[in-house]
Design brief:
By secondary structure, the chain is α/β, with parallel strands linked by helices. Helix content is 59%, strand content 8%. It folds into four domains: 107 residues, no CATH class; 50 residues, no CATH class; 108 residues, Nucleotidyltransferase, domain 5 (2-Layer Sandwich); 173 residues, no CATH class.
Length: 546
């Protein structure tokens, strides 16, 4: 070794663990007197006990072993980063690069450098001057590498986007919970990954996923036995006019899809619905089921009653969301509501039926859209009224503007009629406000029971009472205004939705049971006792009463 290299190497911390023998060219371990035929790096492996090129020292102190181990780890990290740097910038390490970087890395590995200061080739920290605060401490090559990585990511993202666009996949595909795990494992695999073929996807990969699902369903079955569960039935018609019925099981472990049957070749009467539901109860086990939930169609009502006659421990419960939607439909048939909804639909239909008028509206509403009524859910009709009322001033300004008055639409029959409704009908806006006040509390209940944020069973009783109170309050307590609304609600609530399970859920819900507004009326206690009589044995019933 040259005199310069010898001088630099003597600065390495490992020399304090070396025995120097006069006239000997090799290093000797201070702890075990073992001769090292290599340099200081090999001696570090000897002291660290890595079994790399030399037998580990059996007498080294713990502090010395950890110090050498940490230095070797730092050296390895720096070497890895150096190789990645050369690969990214597309050049191979020349002898000059290798020599210069090796000296620097060797110095860093020896631990002689300070935390944040730069280190020279001799191992001494480079003093920082007053101009250094105006310069970046990040190497220029690192900045270039970062920018190059950004460009590389853009290219990868474009390839992913191109695949999604070519297959017509919805953009929310990337919100799927399995999306990021897939991307992570592909990235961790690194270059050379060969994606699965179509044959693999439909053979061994599919079989392993089915096996995994079989394991998961066992956990759900344990929850069904421990907590009980609810069977949910949902019938619908697909694009090919096939009548499909889905069966799902809900429990505290979440909702599990059981199966879907094609009922197109059978008449959807009560007998067939009873057969399908009874088979599901048999498959899951009657002792695990609390209730069977369906919609309010007459065939399902018939099937539910027959099911409760045969199965003495479970309940049939109509879908709360469907019942509330029917309540809103009944309310919508009242004179004031029906007239107001009809006029509101005409206004929205006229605006959205003509491109120029829609564009004009967006300039006045600052791109806020109006909710358009849907066919399947009657609640959207009242949400349309709400969005219309929020844009009241913008619509008045639009139909009063010079741009509207000078257009050809201002002279057409549809335009004149719509403008007259918005600007000059003295009852339109007050009636819109009245319809909103008398239905929005019920729409809020619909949103609550139709979401999966919390189980609705323990809250539906209190939610309905609270909604009726809000409607009465919005009508300033005038019975002639809220009375017809209440009667429409009770006509559906009492015979259809009001079930002993709802009363029991209300009574046993600790969040409501110990509140100041808890209503311990006979109706609630009666529902609780009915549930206990039906669902518990005599001994369990006695314990429950105690």
């Amino acid at each position: 070794m040259s005199s310069s290299d010898s001088k630099n190497s003597r600065k390495d911390f490992v020399w304090k663990y070396v025995i120097e023998v006069s006239g000997e060219q090799y290093l000797r371990c201070k702890f075990c007197n073992q001769r090292c035929t290599g340099g200081v790096n090999r001696l570090k492996h000897h002291l660290a006990g890595t079994h790399h090129g030399m037998k580990p020292c059996s007498k080294v102190s713990e502090d010395a072993r950890l110090e050498c181990k940490e230095a070797l780890a730092n050296f390895k990290d720096q070497k890895t980063k150096r190789n990645e740097l050369f690969q990214e910038i597309g050049i191979g390490p020349t002898s000059m690069h290798e020599s210069a970087l090796s000296k620097t890395i060797g110095t860093l590995g020896s631990g002689s450098g300070s935390g944040s200061g730069s280190v020279s080739g001799s191992g001494e920290p480079i003093p920082r001057g007053p101009m250094d605060k105006f310069t970046t401490s990040q190497p220029r090559q690192s900045i270039l590498n970062s920018k190059w990585k950004q460009e590389e990511r853009k290219e990868v993202c474009r390839k992913i986007g191109r695949f999604i666009y070519s297959k017509g996949l919805p953009f929310n595909t990337v919100n799927d919970p399995y999306w990021f795990p897939m991307i992570d494992v592909v990235a961790n695999f690194g270059p050379g990954f060969k994606p699965p073929s179509m044959h693999e996807l439909r053979t061994w990969i599919l079989k392993e996923e089915v096996n995994d699902l079989s394991i998961i369903i066992e956990d759900h079955k344990k929850a069904w036995k421990q907590y009980g569960c609810s069977i949910m039935s949902d019938g619908w018609t697909d694009g090919k006019s096939r009548c499909l019925i889905n069966f799902l099981v809900n429990s505290p472990a979440s909702t599990w899809f059981m199966k879907s049957i094609d009922a197109s070749d059978t008449i959807k009467n009560g007998e067939n619905m009873f057969k399908y539901l009874d088979e599901m109860v048999e498959e899951i086990g009657e002792e695990n089921i609390v209730q069977v939930i369906t919609n309010n169609a007459s065939n399902y009502v018939n099937a539910g009653m027959r099911l409760m006659e045969k199965r003495s421990r479970l309940w049939w419960t109509p879908c709360a969301a469907h019942c509330i939607d029917l309540m809103l439909e009944d309310i919508g048939k009242l004179n004031v509501h029906a007239t107001t909804l009809s006029r509101a639909r005409q206004v929205v239909k006229f605006i959205y039926g003509h491109t120029w008028i829609l564009s004009l509206m967006r300039t006045f509403t600052k791109n806020h859209a109006l909710i358009r009524p849907a066919i399947t859910r009657f609640a959207t009709a009242f949400l349309t009224l709400q969005s219309l009322y929020k844009q009241k001033q913008a619509l008045i300004a639009m139909f009063s503007s010079e741009k509207w008055c000078s257009s050809t639409w201002a002279k057409k029959v549809e335009g004149v009629k719509t403008r007259s409704t918005v600007l000059f009908d003295p009852n339109f806006w007050p009636h819109v406000a009245f319809c909103i006040k008398t239905t929005v509390p019920l729409v809020s209940v619909l949103r609550e029971v139709d979401s999966e944020e919390r189980p609705a069973m323990g809250y539906i009783y209190e939610l309905m009472d609270s909604a009726k109170e809000k409607i009465a309050f919005n009508c300033r307590g005038m019975e002639r205004k809220y009375g017809p609304i209440w009667r429409k609600i009770d006509a559906r609530w009492t015979p259809q939705l009001h079930r002993p399970l709802h009363a029991a859920g209300y009574y046993l819900n600790p969040q409501l049971r110990y509140g100041d507004k808890f209503s311990n009326v006979d109706e609630v206690r009666k529902g609780l006792f009915e549930c206990m009589d039906r669902m518990l044995d005599y001994q369990e019933h006695s314990v429950g009463l105690i």
